[in-house]
Amino acid sequence: MAAAAAAVKVYGPPMSTAVSRVLACLLEKDVQFQLIPVNMAKGEHKKPPFLKIQPFGQVPAFQDDHITLFESRAICRYVCEKHGEKGNRELYGTNPLARASIDQWLEAEAQSFNPPSSTLVFQLAFAPRMKIKQDEGAIRQSTEKLAKVLEVYDKRLGESRFLAGDDFSLADLSHLPNAHYLVHSPHAAPLFNSSPNVSRWWNEISSRNSWNKVLQLHRGASLSP
Amino acid sequence: MVVKVYGPDYANPKRVIVCLIEKEIEFETVFVDGFKGEHKKPEYLKLQPFGLLPVVQDDDYTLYESRAILRYYAEKYKNQGTDLLGKTIEERGLVEQWLEVEAHNYYPPIYNLVMNILVSPLLGHPSDQKVIEESEEKLGKVLDVYEERLSKTKYLAGDFFSLADLSHLPFTHYLMNQMKKEHMVRERKHVSAWWDDISNRPSWKKVLQLYKYPI
């Protein structure tokens, strides 16, 4: 099936964690999209044309026929609402209690997992590439914080297959981008590998087709139709 | 059975309480002594394993993370009280967008200000002046974007009051009162008008009347 110029556009580099989050969601939902690059090294995200669609100068931004949106987790929720019948129908729950549990763990990701893991992703994966000196204090503090959060996760994942329940959901998906970088970092990998249930969960969620397609986009490949 | 909200004294639980009042949902509250570390003890951790406030209990169902709780009740009681989610999927999308902006762009710097300016002195911890300066600068930049947005729409998601605006009430109260940084709002004409509008809603006035801030 030939892909027509997709009505759905995602703006941002695929290697950005927040952009990856949205791409993984679109792929889970079988929603075709066009990925439009934003040259962050040249500061494109802080310049007027981009600021018109994302006034905070952050990636990603999202457009479809009806709306322009930003904030990756808001975009994911919108995509799931808008395309409820497509692709993975359980992704954002099929009843209110399932959805509440997914929102609870999405918020836990956003408030407890994201801050320390984002700091570590920047310090360990991006700072060296950008020739920025690593902040040892920030690395130490964030490692400690993240370790405590993963203790809670390990207990939960000993009782439940996925974070919000028996089905893979947006809550698990939301962790993929940051965890991917950390699992591939010698410093941070032990945080995941030494927790048996977190380890099991990571192996399962990271082997999803949608995530592997995102990684293809990281490598600069285009997706086969 | 009635919805139970833990920790009404504190700001994050107030986010839930103002929503329940807007939605005309009956609730009761359970005192949690945050200053004595009650939220870090085993009894509480059974309900909220991250040791954070609030948590709600609704019959035998437990839910935590205030913004998740907001979404659940706003959706469950969509046809009762104030509509806080918008009327279409697109309006809902904008509500989600600005709720996420509050969570990721607004909340972190304002939380840092509250912790360093108000809480650290009480606990005998040193305040980090650098964090205070950086947080105030960040918050100012976020408020500049709000000023631009609110010059075009009455509320953040559009011309209707929503979860996105509501979510700003508890911590902005600290900014305007205890932290004495009201100039950050007052210097911005549209943000100022928006703050006066949302903070004068009967629901928020009720919260302030019933549950005093601990600081």
TrEMBL record, chain B:
<feature type="domain" description="GST C-terminal">
    <location>
        <begin position="88"/>
        <end position="215"/>
    </location>
</feature>
<dbReference type="InterPro" id="IPR034347">
    <property type="entry name" value="GST_Phi_C"/>
</dbReference>
<dbReference type="InterPro" id="IPR036249">
    <property type="entry name" value="Thioredoxin-like_sf"/>
</dbReference>
<dbReference type="GO" id="GO:0009407">
    <property type="term" value="P:toxin catabolic process"/>
</dbReference>
<dbReference type="Pfam" id="PF02798">
    <property type="entry name" value="GST_N"/>
</dbReference>
<protein>
    <recommendedName>
        <fullName>glutathione transferase</fullName>
        <ecNumber>2.5.1.18</ecNumber>
    </recommendedName>
</protein>
<dbReference type="GO" id="GO:0043295">
    <property type="term" value="F:glutathione binding"/>
</dbReference>
<keyword id="KW-0808">Transferase</keyword>
<dbReference type="GO" id="GO:0005829">
    <property type="term" value="C:cytosol"/>
</dbReference>
<comment type="similarity">
    <text>Belongs to the GST superfamily. Phi family.</text>
</comment>
<dbReference type="GO" id="GO:0004364">
    <property type="term" value="F:glutathione transferase activity"/>
</dbReference>
<dbReference type="InterPro" id="IPR010987">
    <property type="entry name" value="Glutathione-S-Trfase_C-like"/>
</dbReference>
<dbReference type="Pfam" id="PF00043">
    <property type="entry name" value="GST_C"/>
</dbReference>
<dbReference type="InterPro" id="IPR036282">
    <property type="entry name" value="Glutathione-S-Trfase_C_sf"/>
</dbReference>
<dbReference type="GO" id="GO:0006749">
    <property type="term" value="P:glutathione metabolic process"/>
</dbReference>
<keyword id="KW-0963">Cytoplasm</keyword>
<dbReference type="InterPro" id="IPR004046">
    <property type="entry name" value="GST_C"/>
</dbReference>
<keyword id="KW-0216">Detoxification</keyword>
<feature type="domain" description="GST N-terminal">
    <location>
        <begin position="1"/>
        <end position="81"/>
    </location>
</feature>
<dbReference type="InterPro" id="IPR004045">
    <property type="entry name" value="Glutathione_S-Trfase_N"/>
</dbReference>
<dbReference type="InterPro" id="IPR040079">
    <property type="entry name" value="Glutathione_S-Trfase"/>
</dbReference>
